Amino acid sequence: SPARELTQNPLQKTWEPYDNGLPAGHSAQRGVCMTNCPTLIVMVGLPARGKTYISKKLTRYLNWIGVPTKEFNVGQYRRDLVKKYKSFEFFLPDNEEGLKIRKQCALAALNDVRQYLSEENGHVAVFDATNTTRERRETIYKFGEENGYKTFFVESVCVDPEVIAANIVQVKLGSPDYVNCSNDEATEDFMKRIECYKNSYETLDETLDKDLSYIKIMDVGRSYLVNRVMDHIQSRIVYYLMNIHVTPRSIYLCRHGESELNLKGRIGGDPGLSVRGKEFAKSLAQFINEQNIKDLKVWTSQMKRTIQTAEALGVPYEQWKVLNEIDAGVCEEMTYEEIQENYPLEFALRDQDKYRYRYPKGESYEDLVQRLEPVIMELERQENVLVICHQAVMRCLLAYFLDKPAEQLPYLKCPLHTVLKLTPVAYG
Amino acid sequence: FSSPSSSRTRIKVDAERKKTFVLKMPMELTQSRIQKIWLPNDNRPALPRRSCGPQLTNSPTVIVMVGLPARGKTYISKKLTRYLNWIGVPTKVFNVGEYRREAVKHYSSYDFFRPDNEEAMKVRRQCALAALRDVKLYLTEEAGQIAVFDATNTTRERRGMILNFAKENGFKVFFIESVCNDPTVVATNVMEVKLSSPDYRDCNSTDAMEDFMKRINCYQASYQPLDPDDYDRELSLIKVIDVGRRFLVNRVQDHIQSRIVYYLMNIHVQPRTIYLCRHGESEFNLKGKIGGDSGLSNRGKKFAVALNKFVEEQNLKDLKVWTSQLKRTIQTAEALQLPYEQWKALNEIDAGVCEEMTYEDIREQHPEEFALRDQDKYYYRYPSGESYQDLVQRLEPVIMELERQENVLVICHQAVMRCLLAYFLDKSADEMPYLKCPLHTVLKLTPVAYGCRVESISLNIEAVNTHRERPEEAKKGPNPLMRRNSVTPLASPEPTKKPRINSFEEHVAVSSALPGCVPQEVPTQMPGQ
């Protein structure tokens, strides 16, 4: 049979086959969803081991790279059901009433997981609960099997009392559960809560759980045990988890100083700094100096304007080609007026879906996210970093840190001569 | 006009913090002609601060393999070395067994490896020391970034010795242990790579197998596996268990170790085949134009049909098909009537301002660019376009996914195919842009022993020839002034074979297959997507 005709999608500029005028199957864009079945990630661990921290961070990362992901925190379901938390006694292993409610909540959450993955086009669901018994994990695993999900366990193991105490201070004292307690009361109660789980805690075992796919994170990332990674997305999840850390640090994002083309209202190109742009560079140097940052790394793109800006700092910097501004293809160096005049259709399409819109012979925000992923991964590994980049690039990076969805990303405000200082705190 | 430094700098001394803060005017920049990198006018390429790409590591690293014989140490060493060189991290394997073969010309039997054979123990230790000496040379004087020390290293004593050596020299150490007790796997390994070893040149398979199994036994009693829970808790290591079923990772120190771990977790040993080919001949090919996004010519369409037939005849289980997002590769895939995935990362090299021109057009309109490209085709970046070096960076995720996959057909483009091929066949940056990847020809790659077998299959459909040979003037090798910049694939250098057992005190000049330029510092770039 003759090969199908190809038509170029006007928004994304991708070539798609058409069968009798209708879009046909057979071809997939290499988005980031590289798994056929949905994946169920199951957190495992005693309270205050960072499960929710990991769940939220992982969910944010997966969504940013384009994998629809959602977390389901069973504690939240419990808080919705049991309006007021009284004390740790709710969690005593012999509290039948408590156990019933907790199981109910877990099942309700699993039901929502099923809805998300099977009916709402979710790709990954993160089931955030202690899941500390083999019995509970088996229930979840069976649930996954019945529904055609791949299950991947993420266990966090930590015995360092300082880490646990710090976690409690960071995220538990402010929990709705302890809204009417003093810090001391809350801490005491929470420690007793942890005790309730300890006796029945069955850690993932080398022999008993040898057929499961999982990663065991020990001592906040000092070491890892990885078992039976099944597919690409699990491999990416493992890689991400192995690169994140919890050391306090700050990330500074800014654009290059105002450029000659900025002055003319033209996009793209590779111009140098305007006079005001050079002033900004000097001010940036002063600002950085005043911040008195330990071991600051400075990154730029390979475009002249970011490098000129970094040069003013008088410190070592690294040039990354992947930090280059979005490629506007045939519209490079045009003003928006010129684009509207010469490419009215393109101009309209861009406003229709700015995230997916790809310039002819250029890039889209969606393409940018793909090429920036290694930058994000390295930012996770690093500590104090200043990234001097460009408007579209900065929007993509900011969307990752602030968990902004694709629709909002291209409209995030990133003005010239403004530094955004990002500091990790609690779950965000 | 006063001297440059005084007109450009004001020095402000911060009395409180007792540090000088240099306020500089943003300096003038010049764009390097070949790589199109912006550099300050006081260009001093040796200065580490002017690195052009993310630094993967500061100190050199010694990777120490650990494990009983026939556990895949050499397989991992060679594969990892090939990958690291391809992404631009100068890496070399030092296989102690090869030093031993040089020292002890004829291998008689497993008796050599008996723990009570004092004479042999002495020789083996000398070989390890000689290899370490060469490791030091490579990392401190030959701009090597990573040395892979491939030996059993099964005792704590030996590993302690290596740790001391590394500490004295300021090298980081990363251990890779391969643990496998599945007798089938061990037997397969012995058959794949041991029976054909020079040690067993004059043996039949049965005798060789028997001897080798006894050899393994010699190590068993003294084998002290890495113990990250206790004795080795401070070491950076990965334990690969049962050919990748499980991994134990401890204390990853830096980016390159993190990448190594990721790579090791993605490779596998399942037999499979990778097919590489270009799109069918395109309309632009016919006109001699480069780049663009044209459709297939008539002959190109014929090729697509022939490719379909070829794929069917291969009778493969579960073939994945990948294309770029350019029309010509997709049209080619359409003829296969199989699902395929489009990767933007597989798009042809961006020729920037030269897109859609013929080489004659380029020579006419951009004569200097034309000449520069022939001077150094690997590093050369088209104005507003890309270089082969850029291509390698964007293809790294493709390579990573190819490692994960089994049977795959990649329908791509000339420059892209050259980059991928260079990875599989361990070709250097210098050779890469001249690898032959003609239209209408499929390259079939099958992993075998420590490398890759390649078969070239022409589907016998006429097409234009798009290959340009390296010009005579450029044949002298890479420009020695070229900064070993981001992502510079080196062919994994030949292992050093000369033994040093007779002269511990002297250094003998080491020959290796490094290209001519030996830069002072090797900043490397992390691949993007």
Describe this structure in words.
The complex is a heterodimer of chains A (428) and B (529). The mean pLDDT of chain A is 94. In chain A, helix 11 (336-342) packs across helix 12 and helix 13 packs across helix 14 (391-402). Chain A has helices at 51-64, 74-81, 96-119, 134-147, 161-172, 183-198, 232-243, 260-264, 275-291, 304-311, 336-342, 344-352, 365-381, 391-402; strands at residues 5-8, 15-19, 22-23, 27-29, 39-44, 69-73, 124-128, 150-157, 214-218, 223-227, 251-255, 297-300, 318-319, 385-389, 420-422. Chain A folds into two domains: 39-242, 3-Layer(aba) Sandwich (Rossmann fold), CATH 3.40.50; 251-422, Rossmann fold. Chain A contains 14 helices and 15 strands. The longest helix of chain A has 24 residues, at 96-119. In chain A, a hairpin with a 2-residue loop joins strand 2 and strand 3 (22-23). Chain B has two domains: 61-266, P-loop containing nucleotide triphosphate hydrolases (Rossmann fold, 3-Layer(aba) Sandwich), CATH 3.40.50; 274-476, Phosphoglycerate mutase-like (Rossmann fold, 3-Layer(aba) Sandwich), CATH 3.40.50. Chain B contains 15 helices and 16 strands. Chain B has a six-stranded mixed beta sheet with strand order 6-7-5-8-9-10, with helices on both faces. A six-stranded mixed beta sheet of chain B has the order 13-12-14-11-15-16, with helices on both faces. A two-stranded antiparallel ribbon of chain B has the order 1-2. The two termini of chain B are 47 Å apart. The model of chain B is unreliable at 1-24, 44-53, 480-487 and 497-529 (pLDDT under 50). Chains A and B meet through strand 4, strand 10, helix 7, helix 9 and helix 10 of A and strand 2, strand 10, helix 8, helix 11 and strand 13 of B. Strand 4 (27-29) of chain A pairs parallel with strand 13 of chain B. Chain A: Keywords: ATP-binding, Hydrolase, Kinase, Multifunctional enzyme, Nucleotide-binding, Phosphoprotein, Transferase. Chain A: InterPro entries: 6Pfruct_kin, 6Phosfructo_kin, His_Pase_superF_clade-1, His_PPase_superfam, P-loop_NTPase, PG/BPGM_mutase_AS. Chain A: The active site is at 256 (tele-phosphohistidine intermediate), 325 (proton donor/acceptor). Chain A: GO terms for molecular function: 6-phosphofructo-2-kinase activity; ATP binding; fructose-2,6-bisphosphate 2-phosphatase activity.
